[in-house]
Amino acid sequence: MSTYVLQSPVGLLQHAGAQIVLVVSGGGSQVIPQLLAEGGASGIMLEALVPYARSAMTELLGGEPETYCSDQTVRQMAVAGWQRSIKLSNEVGNNVGVAVTASLRACKQKLGQHRIHVATHHIQGTRTATLQLINNLRSRLEEEHIAALLCLDVLVGTFIEKKDYPWRKELESLLVEGEDIVREQYMPPSSWQKLFSDDELVIPVETNAPAESRRVSEKIQDRLIFSGSFAPLHDGHLAMAHIAEEIAERPVEWELSVSNVDKPMLDYIEVSRRAEQFKGKRLWLSRAPTFIEKIRAFPQSTFVMGADTYQRLTDLKYYGGSHQQLHSAIQTICRKARGLIVFGRVQNEKFENPADFNVPTALRDVTCFVSEREFRVDISSSHIRANKK
């Protein structure tokens, strides 16, 4: 391959064997023709998606994002692209999802900061770059060009570490004082890569947990498991864990699934941030988004959950409307879980007591209900996130 080709973005990505799905929303679409106009693009580009409407983004991410232009949203977009690339190529090798979301100059003057968020996700890591532009210094076309250059820089840098490529030099030359690119990356341990590539269902995470809480064995069974998204972990979770430990007479072990039924997987940066909350505690990462899969990951274990999760166990919509699948799932839960410890919660300003739910007798028989008198904490992760905005 000639030196010229190896100096071009497509040539470098082709040399690395990249298989790319690109997702662009809100700005940065100029990167599409920059990649597709060059010879050899068909060897690396699997698909380019432009979910511009809010409904399109909601469909891509499995729900409405808390903010459409943010570091977290662009990471979700990149993971969605990565998962799409695996589906299209039927492999996990050098597949990568790259995403751009930007709030750029528009017809009407914007009150918010002009900014660009770029992310890539592949089996070996997650990378991001954020650039805040000085408002109204450039035309929309000029801002779009900068977004495209930043996307190329992050995408090529995902596979090849080098700093003197022409597009990076051009990007740096276009920035003025006060405009700095903030970069972040997380390169996971090999065990995380095995989890993300579906070679493992569940793995332990080193969190400096005390020796008495380390119960690692070849068979992951007979444990007290508290599953959740923990975004963030809060005092209500900790209070539930303390009560559950007294009931079950064993330490709680926390489980965070990197997979979700309807949404993209978590990216490595997000997983690492959430795992940081569990220092000194026993944490497991899994690819078990449904409760039946969690039972498979942790057989003959006792599970801690809130009223909302408990209610979903008997909700027909989670079984495709099939009464037979629901009945089979309840049988599996009763047979393979040692028990459930269930806590009430406040929903729509009303306390929901799970003991009042209409559930099958067999499920009720394996459930320990914690009363409102024993536990009531009017707090939730979503409430905490909303107050941080």
| Order of the strands making up the biggest sheet | 7-10-9-8-11-12-15
**Main sheet specs:** 7 strands, mixed
Q: Average pLDDT, to the nearest integer?
A: 91
In quaternary terms, these chains amount to single chain
Annotation field: number of helices: 15
Query: What Rg do the Cα atoms give?
Result: 24 Å
Q: Class by helix and strand content?
A: alpha/beta
Question: Helical percent range?
Answer: 25-40%
Globular, elongated, flat, extended or rod-shaped: what is the shape? elongated
What separation lies between the terminal Cα atoms? Answer: 50 Å
Assess the beta-strand content as a share of residues: 15-25%
Order of helices and strands: HHEHEHHEEEHHEHEEHEHEHEHHEEEHEH
Number of strands: 15
Uncertain ranges: 211-218
3D structure, described in words:
The protein is an alpha/beta fold and 389 residues long. It contains 15 helices and 15 strands. α10 links the parallel β9 and β10 (283-286). The protein is elongated, with a radius of gyration of 24 Å.
